[in-house]
TrEMBL record:
The keyword DNA repair does not apply. GO terms for molecular function: guanyl-nucleotide exchange factor activity; small GTPase binding. The keyword Iron does not apply. One of its GO terms (cellular component) is cytoplasm. Keywords: SH3 domain. Residues 1-51 form the SH3 domain. Gene3D superfamilies: Dedicator of cytokinesis N-terminal subdomain, SH3 Domains. GO terms for biological process: cell migration; myoblast fusion; small GTPase-mediated signal transduction. This is SH3 domain-containing protein. SMART domains: SH3. PANTHER family: DEDICATOR OF CYTOKINESIS, DEDICATOR OF CYTOKINESIS PROTEIN 5.
């Protein structure tokens, strides 16, 4: 999901988000890769998973309740999303040069 306003949160395939609120098909929360940026995002863009949250002082650790195969698949999809995005940008540049 690509945020179009400052109040929204951009998401990438495989991101883990902490949901703070839910309202009419939208969630408000933050990505664990950048806890300082909070925002809203459509509920349809994420899949809820079981997880345990362990607190150790100021640190929080999310422990997914999924099997290792699912974790491996998520990692692979995340990596391929980056690769396909780069390939797309290169092809757009080539098209622009050919015109």
């Amino acid at each position: 999901y690509h945020a179009s306003q400052d109040s929204e949160l951009s998401l990438q395939v495989g991101d883990t988000v902490h949901i703070l609120e839910m309202h009419e098909g939208w969630y408000r929360g933050y990505c664990l890769r950048n806890k300082s940026k909070k925002g809203i995002f459509p509920a349809t863009y994420i899949h809820l998973k079981e997880a345990k949250l362990e607190s150790g002082g100021q640190d929080e650790t999310v422990i997914p309740g999924e099997v290792s195969l699912v974790q491996e698949l998520s990692t692979t999809l995340r990596e391929w999303a980056i690769i396909w995005h780069r390939l797309y940008l290169v092809s757009i540049e080539r098209l622009a040069k050919d015109r």
